[in-house]
TrEMBL record:
GO terms (BP aspect): branched-chain amino acid catabolic process
Protein name per its UniProtKB record: Pyruvate dehydrogenase E1 component subunit alpha
Cofactor list: thiamine diphosphate
Domain of life assignment: Bacteria
Enzyme kind, highest EC tier: oxidoreductase
Keywords, alphabetical: Acyltransferase, Oxidoreductase, Pyruvate, Thiamine pyrophosphate, Transferase
Dehydrogenase E1 component domain ranges (all copies): 33-317
NCBIfam families (UniProt xref): PDH_E1_alph_x (TIGR03181)
Gene Ontology molecular function: any one: acyltransferase activity
InterPro entries (alphabetical): Alpha-ketoacid_DH_E1_comp, DH_E1, PdhA/BkdA, THDP-binding
Taxonomic lineage from the root: Bacteria, Thermotogati, Deinococcota, Deinococci, Trueperales
Catalysed reaction equations from the record: N(6)-[(R)-lipoyl]-L-lysyl-[protein] + pyruvate + H(+) = N(6)-[(R)-S(8)-acetyldihydrolipoyl]-L-lysyl-[protein] + CO2
Assembly with partners or alone: Heterodimer of an alpha and a beta chain.
Length: 343
């Protein structure tokens, strides 16, 4: 199976790009915004202003390119890695900050944003995404669901159950595997014999494509095709984005303990943000002045969101046991009383 790409490793277009100039610029702005936030997030975490945070640096094109293909009223069912996908699909930055600060005000996403909360248990989001997609079909809504999983997550039983169910019911869902080569410290070579995860789609009689996950144009065009097929009743698609996590697994991880400098630096040479910027330069759409202005705007946006999050009153300790079940269990009730009474 060919790995679809539109940009060279340096970023020069290898063929005509199937998007208008306005769309390419819109795509780049989202991509740059995703990078800007991720870099700031790591700093905020080190300052004690975020809890543990899973960075996605290197995987922006896979996430942003996928979500650019969806409409606002479509749904996103993300795992913990997908902060960039969530931002692209409209999650307010302030809510994202509060979420990763473990503040209850970030636990519930706004009602007009069609994103389920980040799933932490690996691959559990997949069957739920399929159920949601099937429900949308039953409602006759013509809406599509985006969901993501890592290469490691494809070894879970939930992956099989979700793809099988989606295939049998022709559910309107697009599965994006971000194959970043590592499940924390376990390389894909120790996890599977499959050379391309996209080839597994054949087992479910669904289309499967492998794309250069650091090429925004390749991801976006593959996702656009998959979404159009789903919306027209053609069922699910599996997209595998070949990418690399340039950052640690989380802010608690030290990747130098399991992977080599050479491997990491080879991927820095294929940085998805720089590649897209080079493509725009090449097309005469972007220059250093545009970049400086965009970065200034992003800085203001992020500063404002951080200030708004900082201004949110601290939660009460008892909120730890609220909102877990509709009615508290006896244990929670006891804990709640202790926290309430300070006993
Ligand atoms: C069911 C379950 N088992 C184990 C874990 C611990 N865990 C957290 S991340 C991770 C690796 C996931 O790797 P991958 O699916 O490739 O995604 P990536 O983190 O690379 O985005 C594991 C095993 C978990 N969160 N859930």
């Amino acid at each position: 199976m060919n790995v679809i790409r539109y940009l060279s490793d340096e970023g020069t277009p290898l063929q005509a790009l199937p998007f208008s100039h306005d769309d390419l610029l819109r795509g780049y702005r989202e991509l740059r915004r995703a990078r800007f936030w991720d870099e700031r997030a790591e700093v905020l975490q080190r300052q004690g202003k975020l809890s543990v945070y899973p960075p996605y640096r290197g995987q922006e094109a896979a996430q942003v390119g996928m979500m650019l293909a969806f409409n606002e009223d479509d749904w996103l069912v993300p795992s913990y890695r997908e902060s960039a996908a969530a931002l692209t699909h409209g999650l307010p930055l302030e809510t994202l900050i509060l979420y990763w600060r473990a503040h209850p005000a970030g636990w519930r996403f706004p009602d007009d944003v069609n994103i389920l909360p980040f799933y932490i248990p690996i691959a559990t989001q997949l069957p739920q995404a399929v159920g949601l997609a099937h429900g949308l079909t039953l409602q006759g809504e013509g809406r599509v669901v985006a969901t993501f999983v890592g290469d490691g997550g494809t070894s879970e039983g939930d992956f099989h159950e979700a793809l099988n169910f989606a295939s049998v019911y022709s559910a309107p869902v697009v599965f994006m595997v971000q194959n970043n080569g590592w499940a924390i410290s376990v390389p894909t070579t120790k996890q599977m014999k499959t050379k391309q995860i996209a080839s597994r789609a054949a087992g479910y009689e669904m289309p499967g494509v492998s794309v250069d996950g650091n090429d925004l144009v390749a991801v976006w065009s593959a996702a656009r095709e998959a979404v159009a097929r789903s919306r027209a009743g053609g069922g699910p698609t599996l997209i595998e984005a070949m990418t690399y996590r340039m950052a640690p697994h989380t802010t608690s991880d030290d990747p130098s303990r399991y992977r080599t400098e050479d491997e990491a630096s080879a991927w820095i040479g294929r940085d998805p943000v720089r590649r897209m910027q080079t493509a725009l330069n090449h097309l005469g759409l972007w220059d250093e002045g545009d970049e400086a202005r965009l970065v200034e705007t992003l800085k203001c946006e992020v500063d404002e969101a951080v200030q708004a999050a900082d201004a949110t009153p601290d939660p009460e300790p008892r909120e730890i046991v609220e909102h877990v079940f509709e009615t508290m269990t006896p244990d929670q009730q006891r804990a709640w009383e202790v926290l309430r009474d300070g006993a």
